[in-house]
Amino acid sequence: MSAAHAVWSRPQLAAQVLRRRRDGQAEVALRVPTLATPHQVLRLEQQLLAERGVARVAVDTLARRLRVRFDDTATPLPRLLAACDAAGCPAQPLAATSLDDARRREADESLRRLLVAGIFAMQAMMFALVLYLGVIDAVDTLTTRLFRWLGLLSAAPVIGYAAWPFFRRTLAGVRARRAGIDLPIALAIGLIYGASVLSAVRGGGEVYFDSVSMFVFVLLLGRHLELRARHRNGALGEAVADAAPLVAERRNADGALEPVAVSELLPGDRVHVAEGGVVPADGLLESANVQVDAALLSGESRACTLRRGQAVDAGSVVLDGPLELRVERTSADSAAGRLGALADAARRGRQAQGADDDPAATRFVLRVLTLAAATVAFWLWRDPARTFDAAVAVLVVACPCAFALAAPATMARAMAVLARRGVLVARPCALRALARVNHALLDKTGTLTEPTFNADRITSRRGLEPRQALRLAVALARESSHPAARAVARRAGGLELPQAREVEVVAGGGIRGRVDGRVLRLGRAGFACAAAADDEALWLADERGALARLPLQESLRPQAQMALSGLRDAGIAAQIASGDVPSRVRVLAARLGIDAWRARQSPADKLRQVRDAQAAGDCVLVVGDGSNDAAALAAADVSASLAGASELARAHADLLLNDGLGGLLLARQLAARAAQVLRQNRRWALAYNMAAIPFAALGFVPPWLAALGMSLSSLAVILNTLRIAAPLPAAAPPALPRLRERTA
Amino acid sequence: MNALLVLIPVSLLLVVLAVAVFFWAVRQDQFQDLDTPKILPLLDADEGAELPPSRSKEMSP
Fold first, then answer.
1. Which of B12, B31, B36 sits opposite A38 (nearest CB)?
2. Which spans in A582-661 are helix H?
3. Fewest CB within a 10 Å sphere: which of A234, A475, A642, A697?
């Protein structure tokens, strides 16, 4: 293993992945494709921190990424990679450019602004409280003035720093001549703060520093929740982009192999890929017969044999023997890149559609500003001296605090409720669309069906008992999340399992590890024991050869029948679109009672089906698990994927169903409920604002009452969102017991 | 009233301190992964026992 890592000590490669910090330490981003369970995170962190000179390890489980800050003179990069191997999580360095990603900076900035707003809003409220109580205790005017100035001081960072994004986006919007939701918000913040500063300086009138700070804080809180939801999706997307290899072995004219960066490959170069390696660029095969797995592209993890002169796609995994290929296209325009680009384009199209800033909120705030203007006009006519105070009071009372909070609070609560029931929502808007869905497109392999394993049909060799073989296989299988491995691991019932050590998961191959002191392999026939191709079974083998054959079969997922009849009851027309042969699709469709099915569908075909249905006015739900579904998933109004899906599919899914297809019905039910609660919340917020405005316009609302009203109306919105989960069955005890099952 | 002249600057100082600590925590990536660390102590760290115990204190959450 370390021989392969030695490449990274070459200066030109190290320069591509290491970033030098000012304090002399180096920083590197690693991709850990097999990282999934907290158990692995723990093991990896401990292993790395045990190395000399490793200062910090930051794990991003969602993006399957690792950032390590270390002293590369004490621990060179190859040793770091060896430590990852020892932890059972092989890692590949990523280009140094991936160290400073915009996503992370955006999240940090949002968090900092949120906190500044929170802390200083509390401070401003504390000083305001003294003023409110001061009215009763008749504190002398000097103290009153002092506390007004302190309020001004506390609110200044909130307005000048925390609320800055509102002002910045407003400026950009004005320059581009379009009015977004930020314009009225920035206007309200600016006017209230400006008026309060004026009052504090003049020494008369009312100040609203507490209200305006709280307004900013609540708005930022809502936006931050949204941002986090969006970033989860982004993280899943990056996990895919990272899959492209960085180093390739180029065969020079003299026949020697030279490690080069993939970005330096040119069409016509000859490239050598070792067994288990990822093909770095599209090309033509120059070796005789090679088995590759194009799971990244097809989504269906299946070996296929290629002959000399046939095309090999970038991203395929080499299953047996090294291969040589002549590069045709480089990584950027290779098949994997193109497939990703297709999905990206579909996704962007959808985002442009759905990116409308809440039109209801804009309308609302504009109405409030009109009312404030009307108040000004009225008081200018009646009593010009009271104009200023009354107009500001209207602005404060009418601040769309509860209104702006309604959507993010409802969505955040709905997402939390669903997450506890095994459905992860990556894109909050999808929940709104889900309530309107009337057409569903489902993939077959992996979505409606799954590999299952019958323990009674194990055939073992060399005198090993079938039960003993199962025990060894399960010990290895539970280390991987591959659907086939999970099918085997589910048969663990009642067995006393040994702990597998030095486990290594080889993508497209299987699992290798030490169990009871012997090195075992579980996986494809070619990976485990170099036997003839056998797509119907997993093989268990040790160094001397095959030990057992574990036959797999395709069967209906447990909740498929229930989910489909649920969809039908909800008035959703379901349709199967599969890449598989017609005979198998027909049988399955008949079993599920679905009339509409299509077989042999390419990714482009599936995308066309989605577009056609959308053109006919349908709101389309796509459920799929392979990378070949990615484009359709991205184009759909709502997309769902299952836990075992390919990374590309998960990256483009709005909903991730961890506990099976039943989650789909749950999500639909909750989406309808959330839409209802959101409408209630907005109606309540509007009613509160509209009822309070006349009193404010007439000058009956002192600042303390305005602040109290703002808090109580927001609180009512939050309490109302808690009712979302009410009609659902109680959640199963959360993640922890499941987690133990999987890891312990 | 004299107490105010002491307590107000103290409270402002505390606020500035809190913000500084928080900015430091954000810079140290303490808020990057909010899901995994809470589960880590509950796992059976069987592999952890094989490592030199003196190193474990450096583990960042």
1. B36
2. 582-592, 603-615, 630-635, 647-651
3. A234
User: How far, CA to CA in Å, does A565 sit from each of A391, A466, A574, A593?
Assistant: 57, 39, 10, 9
Interhelix angle A662-697/A387-397, nearest 10 degrees: 170
Q: How far is CA A514 from the centre of its chain?
A: 34
Closest by Cβ to B51, choosing from A50, A123, A150:
A50
Task: Locate the chain A residue with the closest alpha carbon to B24.
Answer: A112
Task: Decide if A108 touches B, using CB distance below 8 A.
Answer: yes
A183-202: average pLDDT: 85
Rg (CA), chain B: 20
| Residues 47-66, chain A, touching B (beta carbon < 8 A) | 47, 49-50, 56-61
Place of tokens 């928080």: B22
Most confident of A115-124, A223-232, A682-691, A702-711: A115-124
**% of chain A with per-residue pLDDT over 90:** 6
Name the residue of chain B whose CA is nearest to A736's CA: B39
Task: Test A111 with B31 for CB contact under 8 angstroms.
Answer: yes
Q: How far is CA A547 from CA A60, A474, A516, A526, B59, in A?
A: 38, 14, 15, 14, 41
Residue A156, pLDDT score: 94
Interatomic CA distance for residues A154 and A653, integer angstroms: 43
Q: If residue A233 lies in a helix (H) or strand (E), which one and from where to where?
A: helix A209-241
Q: What is the rounded CA–CA span in Å between residue A508 and residue A523?
A: 9
Compute the average pLDDT of residues A147-165.
Answer: 92
Q: Tell me how close the Cα of A236 comes to any Cα of chain B, in angstroms.
A: 14
**A478-497 confidence digits (pLDDT tens):** 776 666 777 787 777 667 77
Would you call A38 an interface residue with chain B, using a CB distance cutoff of 8 Å? yes
> Measured between CB atoms, does A141 come within 8 Å of chain B?
no
Q: Tens digits of per-residue pLDDT, A100-130?
A: 666 778 888 999 999 999 999 999 998 888 8
Number of residues that this document lists for chain A: 744
Max mean pLDDT range (A290-304, A520-534, B5-19): B5-19
Q: Do A42 and B43 touch (CB under 8 A)?
A: yes
